[in-house]
Amino acid sequence: MDPMQLQSLLTWAASGLITLGVGGAALLWAREARVVALRRARLSGNGTLAGGSRAPSAALSGLVGGVKRLGDRMAIQDPSQLSTIRARLIQAGWSSREAVGVYLGARAASMIAATVATVLTLPWAMSGGGGAGAVMAAALFAVAAMLGPDQVVKARRRKIELEYVEGFPDLLDLLVASVEAGLSLDAAVNRVGEEMIRRYPHLAEHLRFLTLELRAGRSRKEAWTSFAERLGIDEARSLATMLRQAEEMGTSLGETLAVFSEDMRAKRMLRAEEKAMSLPAKLMVPLILFIFPCLMGVLIMPAAFRISQTLMK
Fold first, then answer.
1. Separation CA 5–CA 236 (nearest Å)
2. In this structure, are 262 and 277 located in the same domain?
3. Is 122 domain-assigned?
4. Of 80, 84, 81, 86, nearest to 100 (Cα)?
5. 269-272 long-range contacts, CB within 8 A, separation 24+
6. Domain total for the chain?
7. CA-to-CA distance for 117 and 141, rounded, in angstroms?
8. 192 and 288 together in one domain
9. Which long-range contacts (CB under 8 A, 24 or more apart) does 109-118 make?
10. What distance lies between CA 11 and its chain's CA centroid?
11. What pLDDT is stored for residue 46 in this prediction?
12. Rounded to an integer, what is the distance from CA 153 to the centroid of its chain?
């Protein structure tokens, strides 16, 4: 290889490594800034609650209104399917009455957009040499239209479930402290919901729904069962079953909650230990992809540059 070509190759490699390092640092900084902003918003009491975010702009509200009207026209007539969709959206954190219409409208809008995008690929497909690429693009549009809204709901549901799982031991600890202080279970739920609004806003919103159902006269067993179904996690179902059994058998509610709270804390500690044990295996990929090439570049490039200078002389 010519020395000038070798020097140019080394220059491009160094530039690529520097760009990769700067991009990775910027990505980490942006992620940390987002986490800090969310934390400050929660501590200041301006965090979002389940079912909505901050006041949207007029254009965004108009877009959501148009999607909702489209969803109302495309509404499913089967009540069982509507109930299933509503339950999925509530578990994903969208508990408003218009959530089903917006979801159905988003599905219809995504199908319309995929159809328009597929039609726009026809000139490319009819031109020479673009047939296979156009078919792949059309298939990609169709898959994105059919699976996109469902994947968004699933991703949101996984994120909300993580908050529920993390906040459930704290919920039980506060319930135990409130019940042992002399409050009834219903008053303790109301008090705990007020205390958890900043740290776990979605879980506090479901506790508020539970309090409203109990005040409306719904039985405790049905209210806690509905609460567990809205959360969709095993810990909530176990708590509802435990409270029903404690009420039927007449056991002490404080002792039962204390034992269940200790079990939840033990499970949270086991999850933390599992994440800590899996950390070395997860670090192998970023080490190989990012740190190892930079290290090799720092070690090899000076020697390669000297060799290229010697060959040029």
1. 65
2. no
3. yes
4. 86
5. 271/165
6. 3
7. 7
8. no
9. 109/67, 109/70, 110/144, 110/145, 110/148, 110/149, 111/145, 111/146, 113/141, 113/145, 114/141, 114/142, 114/144, 114/145, 117/141, 118/142
10. 41
11. 47
12. 9
CA dist 93 and 159 (Å) reads 10
Distance CA 23, CA 30 (A): 10
Please say which residue of 156, 178, 211 terminates a domain: 156
- What single DSSP character describes residue 287? I
Residues in the chain: 313
pLDDT tens digit string along 11-58? 666 566 667 666 666 776 676 667 666 666 666 654 443 344 444 455
Within-domain flag for 77 = yes
Q: Is residue 39 part of a domain?
A: yes
- The C-alpha atoms of residue 176 and residue 113 are separated, in whole angstroms, by 52
Last residue of a domain, one of 95, 126, 156: 156
Q: Is the pTM of this model over 0.70?
A: no
C-alpha distances out from residue 85 to 79, 100, 293, 312, Å: 10, 7, 48, 71
Structure tokens at 131: 């047939």
The tokens describing 299, both together, are 């070690």
* 235: confidence class by pLDDT, cuts 50, 70, 90: confident
Give CA–CA dist 287/161, Å, rounded. Answer: 30
- pLDDT tens-place string over residues 256-287: 788 888 888 888 888 888 888 888 888 888 88
Host domain of residue 235: 164-268
